[in-house]
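Batch manifest line 322
LIGAND: beta-D-galactofuranose
JOB: complex structure
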Amino acid sequence: MRKTLATFMAAGLMVGGVAACGDSGSGGGDDKITLGFSQVGAESGWRTANTKSIQDSAKEAGITLKFSDAQQKQENQIKAIRSFIQQKVDVIAFSPVVESGWETVLKEAKDAKIPVVLTDRAIDSEDTSLYETFLGSDFVEEGRNAGKWLIEDSKDATETVNIVELQGTAGSAPAIDRQDGFAEVIKDDPKLQIIASQTGDFTRAKGKEVMQAFLKAHQDIDVLYAHNDDMALGAIQAIEEAGLKPGTDIKIISVDGVEDAFKAMVKGQINVVVECNPLLGPQLMDIVKKVANGEETPKRIVTEEGVFTQDQAAEALPNREY
Ligand code: GZL
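JOB STATUS: finished
ARTIFACT:
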């Protein structure tokens, strides 16, 4: 259902304590698709790149975007989705900050006949009728790739390899799945032991704080597995402040592949980065157009991504898009 500009003026900005919201696009005339997008927050370099991709792609596609930043709070995402329903947007898309607790509000969207698209992170609901498509990475595979690198890198080790793990946001799909995928692979090698694992909430500040605690509690850390680059970059500060050499005294495995992580690899501070592609905007807008026009879309679309080791970083860095 398309809305006139007058409807949007009447609806005004979004309600419900949403931290940051606004429109982009040319104002929502009666023949344009209006997309309500609820974003997790602005917690990491990955998220910043993801937001830019969505906003730029909406403009490019001529889609009116109502964007809300939830500051990593599920209640803000639920409020934003309810606001989108009230405003009768054509499509709702969001990246669920955590996996559970979405059925009620998604049933409200379904009852209002507003199709929903999941991007980036998944929900754990069995009811797949609550969304049209989930577009995002395979986080379990990302965890497996991290584990496979460590199995190979440690194959000649004669002693136990002590691993500490910085988990992402508690309850989020990437944190749960990256932990599972890594554990699944390393369980086959008894030398590889996780001696501490705690959430750093995907931020640099928390990643540094938790790594400081790990360093206080353990004198013999060999490897850090960080669920995202921002926590790894925070941990690097803690490792250096402890008088140790990141990438040498403590090897670092990270996920995402933001520019600062590639720069850290060039400096020898991070040993391997498992890519997690945030540039979902173009694919999302294609899906939104199809869904708004009642066309079938695949229930699951997995994004393509690779693994970059330190020796590849310098060559890859100039071509990185985020
Ligand atoms: C993964 C995404 C995660 C990134 C983090 O797709 O949800 O959230 O790995 C970001 O950097 O905070």
